[in-house]
Amino acid sequence: MDEALSQLIRISNTVGRDNSLVQGVGGNTSVKTDDGRHMYIKASGTALAEMDKGRGWRRISVEAVQSVFRDKSLGRMDVNSRELEMAARLQMTCDDNMKSDSRPSVESPLHVILDKCVIHLHALAVLSYASAKNGKARIFELFSDEKYPPLWVPYADPGFSLGRKAFNLVSKYQKQYGRKPSIMILEKHGLLVAENSPDKALRLVRKVIRRCKSGLTQLKTGASAKINKQDIARIENIEKKIAKALLVAGGKKLSVNYFASKIVSAISDTPNARLLVKAPPLTPDEMGFVTSPIMWLENAESKNLENQISLSIRKNQKQPTTFLVSGVGLFVVGNKKMTQMIGDIVAGSLFIRRNAQGMGGINGLNKRQRDFIDNWEAEKFRVELAGK
Ligand SMILES: [Zn+2]
After folding, report:
1. What is the torsional sign of CA 338, 343, 348, 349?
2. What is the pTM (predicted TM-score) of this model?
3. How far is the CA of 57 from the centre of ligand 1 (A)?
4. Quick one: CATH architecture of 3-215?
């Protein structure tokens, strides 16, 4: 096996198994060959922990990817056709002869412009800053002793716009500092680290996370995580109440499950909890999994629960699927497996929201940015169908 590929599998499995770094299929990694001509990169839709020599990656031509976003004609296309064109062209940059229609990550353009080994994560500790109004200033304070400071990348729509923006900013950084950045913080998105060896890249990830955590205040979660019999009865009652209200208000019989998490329960008990939930989605990644706003319930046993849910359906034109109940915690629509997956993502989002609230306020996706993701997801889906 090519050495670059075995390095990629090793770093992917290492970060992929750490769930404070990676949730679900999120995050991606790449390693360039020593001659710099090819790059092995995670394929979309596979988890990093599951990558092995036969699946979960593609090899692409570095030169071919660079020419995609150097192409000025793409910049002039309308958004939808541009993103489709970009996805199709990225697919054509694969030079691995793999009999697979899996696609190289849409974030490939970010990887090709950086050093040999790249790790990109939607890590909670980093997002606490990347999703906060004063996050940029706090990041530069935290890393003020670095000779080569992190590069902060203001938000850009995923795909072509982000690739182009990062390309321009990295070129500027290189002119100023005589080298490429090794730490990039992408506003409302995540972290990118790049180093010339897998071990250095892994070490840098740990260092950045440690630094970011050192600037966050811990939430007291109470001494015992044990749920007593009385709590269980109350939780089951709330599950039933929400399911019944969803049936009356939305006409669908759905299963509702409690997501047990010390942190979420502690957050639901703070005076700010309501405000945290009200802020818009934080990142494109979050929007991909949590498709309607988290609903705040001051009292899930109240008689007008059905009215509240009807109102939320009318307002958002979507049925709520996650409920944060004051002083109790999180309830999710779906089976046990779904509850675990969505619960993890919402718990992560609440953790970030609480930290960002303490850093000048939450800086979520605005309406235009959310609209782009809504359409982009649809386009991606179509691309997938067309590829079958
Ligand atoms: Zn990302």
Report:
1. positive
2. 0.91
3. 16
4. 3-Layer(aba) Sandwich (3.40)
